[in-house]
Amino acid sequence: MFLDRIVATKKQEVDALKGALSISKAEKAISDSAPCRGFHQALVNRNRPVGLIAEVKKASPSKGLIRTDFDPVSLAQAYEAAATDCISVLTDTEYFQGSNDYLKAIREKVKVPLLRKDFTIDERQIYEARLIGADAVLLIAAILSKSQLASFYDLARDLGMDALVEVHDRRELETVLDMGKASLIGVNNRDLKTFETNLNVTEQLIRLMPQGVAAISESAIAEPEDVEFVRKAGAQAVLVGETFMRQSDVQSAVQQLMGPLTKEGSLG
Ligand SMILES: O=C(O)c1ccccc1NCC(=O)[C@H](O)[C@H](O)COP(=O)(O)O
């Protein structure tokens, strides 16, 4: 199964990180660094009726190479110019052709809060995310135990970041809700084991979420009708990658998919 392969590769990367990243040095560097930008708060204060996390995504296991003229900083600047609330940056190299360097370079040029989109399986990756400039990390319920979810969540918060906790089915959602911490839950419409996508997953899972949880619908959102469908299902924001990456003009692609701004003067 592909997800198992990804996790096996991450285990090797984490072994290398154990030699390369000292937690005490990381803590010192983080205490000297600028505070994070509020990722969750940007979605609360969103610029449109449905918030947007726009993804910088060069390639994927399901689609292969998605964008050939891939300049991560220009893409992120186009997202910012289109009043995107948050940006997701894929940092996995092996399967998504992403890079920590992309996130670092985007952090230098763009003020929008950044999600480090990767497969977190070890606490060192959370320190690393904060050091490279992330404002939030992704915690995928399909690859973590309840105790890992809780401790990684607490660590992210202790380091000043938000955590987007991702689920795909009822069992994963129940685990996350049992944990009793997550206030930002992503429903991935893509089954990461089969790559099948279905927006009904958002509808089925959001209705099981208590009030006070902000739900993000992730993956396979391609048309304004899809955004409307997940809004009606209760999603407060969407996470979109491929649809934007396949358009030459990313800024206008955001406007076409997401519609006009709610707040005057948000653009630019
Ligand atoms: O995108 C994939 O093929 C994929 C395969 C295995 C694990 C994760 C995968 N994608 C990560 C994501 O969650 C998406 O990049 C993100 O939700 C955006 O999806 P899309 O708008 O469909 O590009």
TrEMBL record:
**Family classification:** Belongs to the TrpC family.
Query: What EC number(s) has UniProt assigned to this enzyme?
Result: 4.1.1.48
- Positions the record marks as coiled coil are none
The record's top EC class is lyase
SUPFAM superfamilies noted in UniProt: Ribulose-phoshate binding barrel (SSF51366)
Domain Indole-3-glycerol phosphate synthase, residue spans? 3-257
Look up the record and name the pathway of this protein.
Answer: Amino-acid biosynthesis; L-tryptophan biosynthesis; L-tryptophan from chorismate: step 4/5
**Alphabetized UniProt keyword annotations:** Amino-acid biosynthesis, Aromatic amino acid biosynthesis, Decarboxylase, Lyase, Tryptophan biosynthesis
Question: What is this protein identified as?
Answer: Indole-3-glycerol phosphate synthase
Q: Does the keyword Lyase apply?
A: yes
PROSITE patterns with a match to the protein in the record? IGPS
Task: Report if keyword Amino-acid biosynthesis is assigned.
Answer: yes
Question: Which catalytic reaction applies to this protein?
Answer: 1-(2-carboxyphenylamino)-1-deoxy-D-ribulose 5-phosphate + H(+) = (1S,2R)-1-C-(indol-3-yl)glycerol 3-phosphate + CO2 + H2O
Could you tell me which CDD domains the record lists for this protein? IGPS
What PANTHER family does the record tag this protein with? INDOLE-3-GLYCEROL-PHOSPHATE SYNTHASE, TRYPTOPHAN BIOSYNTHESIS PROTEIN
